[in-house]
Amino acid sequence: MADGREILYFDAVQHTRPDSIDVRQLPDRNVNSEIRFDRLLGEWVVIAAHRQTRTQLPDRTQCPLCPSRPGSPTEIPASDYEVVVFENRFAALPGVSTHSSALADHVAGSAPTSPTEKSGRSEVVCFSSEHDTTSAQLGVERTRMVIDVLAERTTALRAMPAVSQVFCFENFGAEIGVTLSHPHGQIYALPFTSPRAAKIEANARRYRDEHNRNLFGDMFAAERDSGVRVVCANDEWTAFVPTAARWPYEVLLFPNRRVADIPELDDHARTRFAELYLDVLGRFERRFDEPMPYIAAWNQAPKGAEDFWWLHLQIFSIRRAPGKLKYLAGAESGMGVFISDTTPENVAAELRAVTP
Ligand SMILES: [Zn+2]
């Protein structure tokens, strides 16, 4: 791209794009991200103030994720594409320099192993050149292609020595804070293990040490045996509402056989994922009169946890009822105590009952 960012096209059939030249005059990439360590919580925080200026829900004629047209260049120089990945112009993570906050210098001991400089990376994944479609409407073939792309990017980004965890996700709906409505997802190659993954890793490791068993596997088997919170399933995947769901609508998609990450999924498991994922998204779309906003977050093994981690996708919505959103208020934002307005068993029954 004109400012030196990398762009990658993924096509069902290989072809060249002679028209794919970025003719824009782009300003220098203004990326001043810092990763700071919160000593009290033992968690990393990304400070990325340059993102304040990022594009906010532009008119569709100004969409930066649509293909370029003569006289209207976008982020994708080509006149058409299938799936495309490029480095985020308003990246949270590239070129990060590390500071364990100033205070840390006065606190005994030092932060855990620091991420090295320029170690993270933020990418955008466009699922379709069609502005007005949604992930729920992509169809099995394209959804499967997106999974292949995420697998390829995960492999490439994990190979970066400083990357600890590759986080692929999609935000959907203005209520979630989506700034561009064009169907797309994002990938954060994190130079540290995220707080959620670190907690899960520690619990699963302790369980293994104490019981010589797999925590994910035991929890998943219990869900399948009981079935009360299972929403739908096929021969490769099971979708269920977790026992202690935090969000009004929350579903986990587990592969029936353990794999650590997306690249480890075989051909059949990827296709069957696409089918079940579209089924779940359809239920989210039709549960209320208007499609539910959602976050779809891939939980892949952080480095070092590959031998026991169980890949899963977490899909959740902040919609708790028509016209009502769940806000993270005092209990949740202040103390991290989630108070749910729904019961997981009812939510599972409601989602099972949504007609195709
Ligand atoms: Zn668009």
From TrEMBL:
Family listed: Belongs to the galactose-1-phosphate uridylyltransferase type 1 family.
Binding site for Zn(2+): 63, 66, 131, 182
Stretches that traverse the bilayer: none
Record-level GO cellular component terms: cytoplasm
Active site per the UniProt annotation: 184 (tele-ump-histidine intermediate)
Keywords: Carbohydrate metabolism, Galactose metabolism, Metal-binding, Nucleotidyltransferase, Transferase, Zinc
Protein name per its UniProtKB record: Galactose-1-phosphate uridylyltransferase
InterPro entries the UniProt entry points to: GalP_UDPtransf1, GalP_Utransf_C, GalP_Utransf_N, HIT-like_sf
Cofactor info, note text: Binds 1 zinc ion per subunit.
Annotated EC: 2.7.7.12
GO biological process, one term: galactose catabolic process via UDP-galactose, Leloir pathway
Record has Zinc as a keyword: yes
Residues in Galactose-1-phosphate uridyl transferase N-terminal domain copies: 28-192
UniProt signal peptide: none
Protein species of origin: Antrihabitans stalagmiti
GO function terms (MF aspect): UDP-glucose:hexose-1-phosphate uridylyltransferase activity; zinc ion binding
Every Galactose-1-phosphate uridyl transferase C-terminal domain range: 204-319
Name of the encoding gene: galT
Cofactor: Zn(2+)
